[in-house]
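Session log. Operator J.P. requested a structure for one protein chain; no other inputs attached. Running the standard single-chain path with C-alpha cell output.
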Amino acid sequence: MTFKDFVGSGSNGIIGVLNTIIVPVIMALAFATFIWGVVNFFFLHGDDEGKREEGRQFIFWGILGMVILFSVWGLVNILLSTLGIAPTAK
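Structure written below.
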C-alpha cells in the first residue's frame, strides 16, 4: 500500500472519510451553533440582556467555526493538490 492509496482520493481513504463524514458533521454543528445564537438573540429572550449577550456569543462562535473550517479545508486541498494527491470528482 502506497501513501497515495492510504490517503486516497474522492471517496477512498482518509480523504474520503474527511470529505464525506467529518467535515459535514463539523459544519452542521457550527451552523447549528450559529442558528441557536440567532434564535436566542432575536426570538427567545428579547428583554433579558444577559441572554441576548449569550446569543451574540453563540453567533460569533458559530461564524468563527465555519470560517476556520472552510480555511483549513481549503489549505488541506491546496496541500493535497500540490503533492499530486488531490481528490478527484467521479
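Operator note: Residues 13-81 form one domain.
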